[in-house]
């Protein structure tokens, strides 16, 4: 990917009042469909990628599926950022190699989290080291540093300390999933020069309100994957029950779905 596309992806995070709405895909088809729908950039969802491979999320076991998908999605005409969970258990040297490999493939960004499957947070010095190693090895890569202080019980008080450390380590963006407190969001967007990423939560803060609070990026996380699977199950159930009015409205035609492969032709 040429430098222009890295710059374009970075610029999408610096449009005051117009946050980047980042849909998260779980395979080539969903990513191509989202790109065709006009989204300016595409992310991946670790839950969706792992679940589609029959593996649990956030355990590092979907490393190969994640990296293979990321390299494939880099052929899309829009920038792609990959959710690498907590770094797949990597140390500084191996995560630096991973970052360099993704940049060579054309991936524009990564999301790295500090939450661990056992409900703890990664040691702060280690997380700083991983972020710094990625930026040193791949300066153009947009590193979105996620802290799970609002997802894991008892850690909200650590949020500012961790965000400060991650920004100092070179993170290009800061992500606090689970945070929906308006005054806290406004304070964070005012405090940090790195753009703030918030996870969209149905029925909670709208994209418009998050924009007013200074949020620069709104991710959908695993929402789209879960919605797609649920809709498929609901539709299959309606067909099995013989419901003649099974809700297939809006389902794309075969030719449209088959055409998503065209997005990957170089």
Automatic annotation (TrEMBL):
<dbReference type="InterPro" id="IPR039556">
    <property type="entry name" value="ICL/PEPM"/>
</dbReference>
<dbReference type="InterPro" id="IPR040442">
    <property type="entry name" value="Pyrv_kinase-like_dom_sf"/>
</dbReference>
<dbReference type="GO" id="GO:0003824">
    <property type="term" value="F:catalytic activity"/>
</dbReference>
<dbReference type="InterPro" id="IPR015813">
    <property type="entry name" value="Pyrv/PenolPyrv_kinase-like_dom"/>
</dbReference>
<dbReference type="Pfam" id="PF13714">
    <property type="entry name" value="PEP_mutase"/>
</dbReference>
<protein>
    <submittedName>
        <fullName>PEP phosphonomutase</fullName>
    </submittedName>
</protein>
């Amino acid at each position: 990917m040429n430098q222009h596309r890295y710059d374009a992806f970075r610029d999408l995070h610096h449009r005051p009042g117009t946050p980047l709405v980042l849909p998260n895909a779980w395979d080539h088809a969903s990513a191509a469909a989202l790109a065709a729908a006009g989204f300016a950039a595409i992310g991946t969802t670790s839950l969706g990628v792992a679940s589609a491979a029959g593996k649990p999320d956030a355990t590092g076991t979907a490393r190969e599926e994640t990296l293979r998908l990321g390299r494939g999605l880099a052929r899309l005409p829009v920038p792609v950022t990959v959710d690498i969970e907590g770094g797949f258990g990597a140390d500084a040297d191996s995560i630096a190699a991973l970052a360099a490999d993704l940049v060579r493939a054309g991936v524009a960004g990564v999301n790295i989290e500090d939450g661990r499957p056992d409900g703890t947070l990664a040691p702060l010095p280690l997380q700083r080291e991983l972020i710094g190693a990625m930026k040193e090895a791949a300066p153009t890569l947009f590193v979105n540093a996620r802290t799970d202080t609002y997802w894991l019980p008892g850690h909200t008080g650590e949020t500012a300390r961790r965000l400060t450390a991650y920004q100092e380590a070179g993170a290009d963006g800061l992500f606090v999933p689970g945070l929906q407190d308006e005054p806290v969001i406004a304070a964070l967007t005012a405090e940090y020069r790195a753009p703030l990423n918030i996870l969209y939560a149905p029925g909670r803060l709208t994209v418009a309100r998050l924009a007013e609070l200074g949020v620069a990026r709104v991710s959908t996380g695993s929402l789209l994957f879960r919605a797609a699977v649920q809709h498929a199950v609901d539709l299959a159930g309606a067909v099995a029950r013989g419901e003649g009015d099974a809700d297939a409205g809006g389902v794309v035609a075969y030719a449209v779905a088959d055409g998503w492969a065209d997005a990957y032709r170089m």
